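Both lines are given unchanged directly below:

***
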Amino acid sequence: MAGHSKWNNIKHRKERQDAKRAKIFTKLSKEIFAAVREAGDDPSTNLRLRSAIAKAKAENIPGDNVERTIKKASGDTSGIQYEEITYEGYGPGGAAVMVEVLTDNKNRSVAEIRHAFNKNGGNMGESGCVAFMFHKNGYIFLSAEEVDEETAMLDAIEAGADDVEREEEVFTVTVPVKEHEKVRAELEGKGYKIEKAEVLMEPETTVELNDEHAEAMIKLIDVLEENDDVQDVHHNFAWNETQEQLNQ
């Protein structure tokens, strides 16, 4: 994402995910289920569950659906356990790729992820082969509509943010990962409209690909994101609008 608007990158990804709405709730349901099984059904004490509920709200998933998932996880006696795994590899042109998975069948997941890499010009690597190329940052995107810029900056910094920048129609608030949920809650409590709040795995540097490799890379990302076990895909491919058109 270096050199690019983080908000634009978020919008690019959201636009792509919007075309896959049927899968979004499936993925979030698994995250909610796993969070409840890990630390209980009270979001006030379960940070992971609170974060998952916030994501569901941001995706306009009905609260009733979320509550049903929480109740199901709380009373589940089937013994379902989800395992969190991160697979690493290289995409077309050598782009670094990290795939976060939440699965109840590791053998199925690894086979499907490996197949996606192989079929789309990439290859899976060993654990740690590309992880060093990424770092985590917390971001909160606040609507800038009818909001005083100086007040927003002061409120965000006071809440614990590291930095605030205006990007088009939003304020991009950079937050330490460990403070992410606290800052989000404080800003929401002060009446700010939160467009999105995420902890992103960001590349230290990005790579530009030629059109052929870019098209294949976009296809690889699509195939990975279509997989029900995949929660997120991170890469160091430098998006640009021309290459974004290739797969449309």
The radius of gyration is 19 Å. The mean pLDDT is 88. The beta strands are 83-90, 96-103, 123-124, 134-143, 163-167, 170-175, 194-203, 230-235. Residues 145 and 169 are 7 Å apart (CA to CA).
